Amino acid sequence: MKIYIAGHRGMVGSAILRQLEARRDAGEDLDLITRTHAELDLTDQAAVRAFMAAERPDVVILAAAKVGGIHANNTYPAEFIHANLMIAANVIHAAHEAGVERLLQLGSSCIYPRDAAQPMAEDALLTGPLEPTNEPYAIAKIAGIKLCESYNRQYGRDYRSVMPTNLYGPGDNFHPENSHVLPALIRRFHEATQTGAERVTIWGTGRPRREFLHVDDMAEASLFVLDLDRATYEANTEPMLSHINVGTGEDISILELARMVAEVTGFTGRIETDPTKPDGTPRKLMDVSRLTAMGWRARIGLREGVEATYRWYLENAARVRA
Length: 322
Ligand SMILES: NC(=O)C1=CN([C@@H]2O[C@H](COP(=O)(O)OP(=O)(O)OC[C@H]3O[C@@H](n4cnc5c(N)ncnc54)[C@H](OP(=O)(O)O)[C@@H]3O)[C@@H](O)[C@H]2O)C=CC1
Ligand SMILES: C[C@H]1O[C@H](OP(=O)(O)OP(=O)(O)OC[C@H]2O[C@@H](n3cnc4c(=O)[nH]c(N)nc43)[C@H](O)[C@@H]2O)[C@@H](O)[C@@H](O)C1=O
What we know:
The chain has helices at 11-25, 45-55, 70-75, 77-97, 135-155, 181-195, 215-227, 230-235, 254-265, 289-294, 302-316; strands spanning 2-6, 31-33, 59-62, 102-106, 158-164, 166-168, 199-203, 209-210, 212-214, 243-246, 252-253, 270-274, 283-284. The protein is an alpha/beta fold.
């Protein structure tokens, strides 16, 4: 089985690669194909086409994307929509042209309407307006789902989509502005303990609620969905809604999260909020009943995951992306 993992140096792609390498080392017949961004720019249609035609993988896992937190999405909307549309269109179309039977792509919980009923079920897609801070990225992710559905409908392909909630873990981006909230807070609280700062400020009101999934759980869920036989996958999705939510089914407010990160990093000062910064979506909690019914559930609790990620950060601070 020849598997191409796009985005294998990213947080999710590297976690998926670790699990596939472990399977290969345990005796599974896996030929794992990777290319760095420098070796293959997935926004380059001709290059992607040539690569796919030459390699002809059996399976493609699409974990490459332009990714960032609320500030990055809000500041660089053109790059977020352009890069992600191009990556999805190029990879999915070239895979089809090269005869790839099965593909798994990663979307995001931001595909759902800003004010979707909570928890958000798969059929909430396209039922209302999106959150403005990440609408361009969300539109590209929705296009990815529709690309897969269209190749399945017209050509009988087996292209699947998983929609992760907010992710975190080893290999995350700890940039002070462009990262997601959890790595940003780990870094800010850690630095406050180092400098002896009396207060740490978090963005927004602290009231939004988010659901956080450890990337090792996400990698396991991705391979679980990829491994399902086609009849099982199709029986648990709908012809026009071929995506599956992945999450823990539990959420937490950003202020509660900040208090947890403060405890884990040993920060004992004050936590202040900055309401001049955007809150984004008020609440994002996935309905994970489809995946649970199929037999998968998250294993890594949030506190345990934050502690492990903080240990990773301390051991790898020199190579965090900042
Ligand atoms: N992190 C999160 O909280 C969430 C992530 N997701 C989704 O999961 C997937 C993986 O995200 P994550 O691992 O966090 O992101 P990362 O930024 O950690 O990894 C993305 C990877 O894609 C590569 N990449 C980006 N652009 C290109 C390109 N033009 N050509 C080739 N490679 C490229 C990056 O390489 P380089 O760094 O060299 O550019 C990087 O290795 C994405 O689809 C994302 O939308 C969904 C929900 C939440
Ligand atoms: C995964 C998901 O990620 C993004 O959406 P988001 O969930 O809003 O992501 P976020 O992690 O950046 O923020 C979550 C909440 O946390 C608050 N917050 C506090 N303090 C910091 C802080 O220091 N940094 C950040 N980034 N946020 C902070 C922040 O104001 C917000 O209320 C999109 O890219 C979207 O497209 C997407 O897919």
